[in-house]
Structure formats: structure tokens, C-alpha cells
Amino acid sequence: MIEAHSLQQHLQGIIPSARLEQTCLPDCPAIKLWLLNSDYPQGNLDPEQVQQVMDNPLYWVFCWASGQVLADFLLSNPHWVAQKRVLDFGCGSGVVAVAAALAGAAEVIACDIDPMARTATKLNASLNDVTLTVASDYDAIEGPVDLIIVADVLYDRANLSWLQRFRQRAQRVLIADSRVKDFDFPPYRQIERCDSFTVPDLDESAEFRDVRIYLAD
Ligand SMILES: C[S@@+](CC[C@H](N)C(=O)[O-])C[C@H]1O[C@@H](n2cnc3c(N)ncnc32)[C@H](O)[C@@H]1O
What we know:
It is a single chain. The chain is of the alpha/beta class. The chain folds into 2 domains: 2-61, no CATH class; 65-216, Rossmann fold. 31% of the residues lie in helices and 26% in strands. Helix 4 links the parallel strand 3 (85-89) and strand 4. Helix 1 (2-14) packs across helix 5 (115-127) and helix 3 (65-76) runs parallel beside helix 4.
């Protein structure tokens, strides 16, 4: 449990009263993750802590609505990943990578630029008894990839340029997103729509709970 300890220390260095707790995903109960405690101190941060959170985004302490939807989609439709080499881009807590592994992928590579997200992903893989390959550098990943899976990385509009790069790398790409309005990036097309929420619940507005899955193939 050394990794849980180092993640907890990192979290409490930013939000002292917060902690990690094992959480079963309400919309995807086959998966449990180490996430921010559900009674986390929302609104209780002083200005210095707010600045700390801005400087060190803790994406990995949440399972984002899009991640929960894509994880559930893969578990309900395992043919998308079964026996395939799958790459989860922007893995955060690792939720979608864990789902792909549980759904029978031959190999799952979980990639994130944030070292804490990579540590969280390893910890959550072990919590769910699956094996993942964890990577920091997308360009350094060798060999063919059958499917790229992506959940909630388009909050940063700079990441829109990746849509084209994903297609050069894999024959199929699945993007789950609720941040981009009027998503219009052919050949990506909507194949699924589902209401969900971020865990623990950030009480986000209805538009951010309205998750779409887009496919390019
Ligand atoms: C909002 S979180 C989503 C995490 C997870 N996919 C989910 O749905 O719960 C976005 C994640 O993407 C990662 N990320 C953002 N831009 C990235 C990039 N250019 N390369 C790799 N990871 C990136 C962030 O570090 C963060 O962990």
C-alpha cells in the first residue's frame, strides 16, 4: 500500500482535510477506485489552497462523468476491446483502462502526463485485480494499437488537435466527452449518449452530465 500512502500524502499537501477512500462507481459498480472522500471539504479552501489546487490539478481523485460512461459502455459492449491492444489517453484515475482490461483487452496501455495520475492508475489497477501498462509519453509507445479510448480530455481545447493524431495511430478511436458543444469533427460521429456524473459528485450543471461517445473508424 506504499502507493496509496504517497498519493494520500500528495493530496493532503494540497487539501489537508481530504483523504482517499475506496469508492464503488454508482453507474459502473464492477469497478472500485481510490477517489477523494465523498464528504470532501467543498468550498472550505482558503486562497492559498485554492492556488495550490490550480497549480496542481488533482484530476485523478475524481472519476469524471465521461470516464464513468465510457467504462460502463466498454463493460456492457466488451467486443470493442476483447483481444485488442488498447490505449487509454489521459487515464486520470485509470477508470477506463481498468474497464478495458476487465472487458477482456489483450493489453491496455494507460497514458497520462501527470505522474500522480499514473501512480493512481497503478493503484486502481491493483485494486481491481487487472494488469495495465502505464506510460507517460504517447509518442514513446511502441507497436500497433487497435483502439484508442479517451474520456474527458477535451476540457482543454488544446487537446482538440489530438483527435487527428489518434486517427493516424489506430483504426478505431472512442471519445467520451461532455465539454465540447456542437462537436463537429468528421469522421468522428456520435454513437451513444448517456447522463452521468463525476464521482465524488461535483454537482456539475446538466450540460456536463450529458455525455456523448464519438467513434472514428
Ligand atoms: C479530466 S481528467 C479525465 C481522467 C479520466 N479519463 C476520467 O474520465 O476520469 C483528464 C486527464 O487527462 C490528462 N491529460 C490532459 N492532457 C493530456 C495530454 N496532452 N497527454 C496526456 N494526458 C493528458 C490529465 O493529466 C488528466 O489526468
